[in-house]
Each structure stands twice: as structure tokens, then as C-alpha cells.
């Protein structure tokens, strides 16, 4: 399958699925079953196709074409769907390009009664990420940059509004790393840095700082259980006019097939698991919000 056929096939899938995806938060919906299990940390990791949403600078870390589809249920009974694809090594401007679509049912719970607000938000976006090698060799860290252009439509009972916004992402990789580590990453994400008004209001902006460490050691627990590819991560999220939110998470590969995750999301406990099957990976994550948990499940194809 040549590269042009791949691009056409992937774009066809995207536009076929977008009308059926159902709900999104324009700013800081925590997208990803994998990320949910890690407490909502990913800004400083950026190693799969969902990084287009979390930090587009990570797109150029990908070595293969990736497609991810996700479905989730929120603690407030709202549904969320997400689709993303990434195409590495493109000739268009260099770097890696990606597309994503996200929708969310806007609902609330009041006095233990579910009320649908009658608003559905749909976000579609295009992202780009690139390693900045030329002229930066003398720097003590590798540098990746990325950006997203997002289009939002909010459909209410009596009106429909539209808007646009731009995200900017950076990913730093120190060249001198600690003993026992394979890689260290520091991510910065500026959400809705530039945005238009919607119903006389602008979508809120936000600042995310992420830190990730990939360990270079294998741990044998005995009885045929071996842990590898251990990731430690932390994110600090500061949405506009909201308090700072701190998240921690970890992921480890068990016997080269199973993935185990755990974390804390601003005080809420999160756990998750995954399994790799050839080119496929299936993930599940749950955040134990009070009073009701949030669930997300996703499928990833890599080739």
C-alpha cells in the first residue's frame, strides 16, 4: 500500500466516522482510556496518536501510522467519543500530521436528577508536530514543536454557534539523563491560545505542564512476571479562572503483553489496563470520581 493510498483511506475513514461520533469539551476534556488510567497525565509523554489532543509536539515521535477510537461515559452520565489518526513522515511541510474529532453530550446532575442541557459540542481539528534538529544540535535538549487548529460547533435547542482556536505545544528531551532512565520528557501545552468568540464569549484558555520518565530497567517479580517499559508521569493543569490541578500516573508493561496503569487525578484515584495484540491495542481506564466514576475504552491500530 503506497503512501498516497494510505492517506486517502485514512481520510475516508475519518469523514465517514465523524458524523456518528457523539460529544466534547473545547478546552480540557481528559481524552483517552490509557490517559484516564494514568490519572489524566500525558502532556509530557506524547507517544501515540492521541497526543494530537494532549500535546501535538509529540506527533513527530511516532514511527507508524496510528488510528485510535474511544468511547467514554462521564461521572455526570454524559457520553464522549474521540477519533484520531496520525501520519508520520509526510512531505507536506515535513514532520507528522494528524486529524481528530471529538464530541460530548452536555448534561448535568442536580438533586440526583439527570438533566440534559440540550447542547452537543463537536470539535474537529488538524495537528502538526516536528523535531527541530537543524541549528539546535548544541542545545542540551532535543526540541519538538507542534500546533493544532480546532473548529468547534455547539448545537443547542434553539441555536447553533461556531468558533475556532489554536493550540501550541512544546516537548523537550534532555540529552543528559539520569542513570536507569531511557528517556526524560518535559511537555508544555497552551490550549486555545488564539480563539474566536462564541455567543459573545471566548472559549477559556489553559496552560498544561507535563513531565515523563521512561525507565530503562526490567523488574522480575518471580513466578514468570516481568515488568518493563515503566513510565512515571506528572501533569500540572491550570485552566483559565480555575484552580491548579495536579495529576500523577504510572504505566508498566507486564510480560510484554499486558499493561497496568494507576494514578491520581486532583485527588481522585484512577486505574486502568490494556492488552497488545499484534498491531492492535485495547485499553480501559476508570477515574473514581465522587459520587460516580468515569469510564473510557479505546482501540488503537498501528501499522
Explain what this protein looks like in three dimensions.
- The protein contains three helices and 15 strands.
- A hairpin with a 5-residue loop joins strand 10 and strand 11.
- The protein is 8% helix and 56% strand.
- The chain has a 14-stranded antiparallel beta barrel with strand order 1-2-3-4-5-6-7-8-10-11-12-13-14-15.
- The protein is globular and about 60 Å long.
- The chain has one domain: monomeric porin ompg (Porin).
- The model is unreliable at 1-5 and 9-27 (pLDDT under 50).
- It is mostly beta strands.
Total discrete domains = 1
CATH topology: Porin
Strand arrangement, major sheet = 1-2-3-4-5-6-7-8-10-11-12-13-14-15
What is the H/E string? HHHEEEEEEEEEEEEEEE
CATH superfamily: monomeric porin ompg
Specify the overall morphology. globular
**Percent range for helical residues?**
under 10%
Low-confidence stretches: 1-5, 9-27
Radius of gyration: 19 Å
In round numbers, the mean pLDDT is: 82
Largest sheet: 14 strands, antiparallel, barrel
The CATH architecture category equals Beta Barrel
Reading off the top of the CATH hierarchy, the class is best stated as Mainly Beta
Structural class: mainly beta
Number of helices: 3
Q: What distance separates the N and C termini?
A: 11 Å
Strand content: over 45%
In short:
By secondary structure, the protein is mainly β.
What would the keywords be for this entry?
303 residues, mainly beta, Porin, disordered N terminus
What's the helix and strand layout?
Elements: H1 3-17, H2 33-37, H3 51-54, E1 66-73, E2 79-87, E3 96-110, E4 113-131, E5 141-155, E6 160-174, E7 181-195, E8 206-215, E9 219-222, E10 225-239, E11 245-254, E12 258-265, E13 268-277, E14 280-287, E15 294-302
Antiparallel strand pairs: 1-2, 1-15, 2-3, 3-4, 4-5, 5-6, 6-7, 7-8, 8-10, 9-10, 10-11, 11-12, 12-13, 13-14, 14-15
Amino acid at each position: 500500500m503506497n503512501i498516497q493510498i494510505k492517506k486517502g483511506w485514512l481520510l475516508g475513514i475519518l469523514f465517514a466516522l465523524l458524523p456518528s461520533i457523539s460529544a466534547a469539551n473545547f478546552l480540557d476534556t481528559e481524552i483517552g482510556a490509557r490517559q484516564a488510567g494514568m490519572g489524566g497525565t500525558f502532556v509530557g509523554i506524547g507517544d501515540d496518536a492521541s497526543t494530537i489532543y494532549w500535546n501535538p509536539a509529540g506527533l513527530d515521535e511516532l514511527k507508524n501510522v496510528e488510528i485510535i477510537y474511544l468511547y467514554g461515559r462521564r461521572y455526570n452520565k454524559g457520553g464522549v467519543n474521540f477519533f484520531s489518526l496520525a501520519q508520520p513522515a509526510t512531505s507536506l511541510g515535513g514532520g507528522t500530521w494528524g486529524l481528530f474529532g471529538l464530541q460530548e453530550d452536555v448534561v448535568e446532575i442536580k438533586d440526583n436528577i439527570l438533566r440534559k442541557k440540550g447542547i452537543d459540542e463537536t470539535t474537529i481539528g488538524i495537528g502538526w508536530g516536528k523535531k527541530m534538529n537543524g541549528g539546535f544540535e548544541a542545545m542540551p535538549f532535543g526540541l519538538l514543536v507542534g500546533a493544532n487548529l480546532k473548529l468547534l460547533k455547539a448545537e443547542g435547542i434553539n441555536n447553533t454557534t461556531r468558533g475556532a482556536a489554536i493550540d501550541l505545544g512544546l516537548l523537550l528531551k534532555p540529552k543528559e539523563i539520569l542513570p536507569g532512565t531511557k528517556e526524560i520528557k518535559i511537555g508544555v501545552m497552551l490550549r486555545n491560545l488564539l480563539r474566536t468568540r462564541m455567543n459573545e464569549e471566548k472559549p477559556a484558555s489553559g496552560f498544561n505542564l507535563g513531565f515523563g520518565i521512561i525507565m530503562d530497567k526490567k523488574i522480575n517479580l518471580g513466578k514468570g512476571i516481568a515488568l518493563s517499559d515503566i513510565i512515571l508521569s506528572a501533569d500540572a493543569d491550570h485552566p483559565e479562572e480555575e484552580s491548579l490541578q495536579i495529576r500523577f500516573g504510572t504505566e508498566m508493561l507486564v510480560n510484554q503483553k499486558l499493561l497496568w496503569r494507576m494514578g491520581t487525578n486532583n485527588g481522585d484515584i484512577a486505574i486502568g489496563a490494556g492488552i497488545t495484540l499484534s498491531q492492535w491495542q485495547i485499553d480501559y481506564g476508570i477515574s473514581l470520581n465522587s459520587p460516580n466514576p468515569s469510564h473510557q475504552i479505546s482501540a488503537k491500530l498501528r501499522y
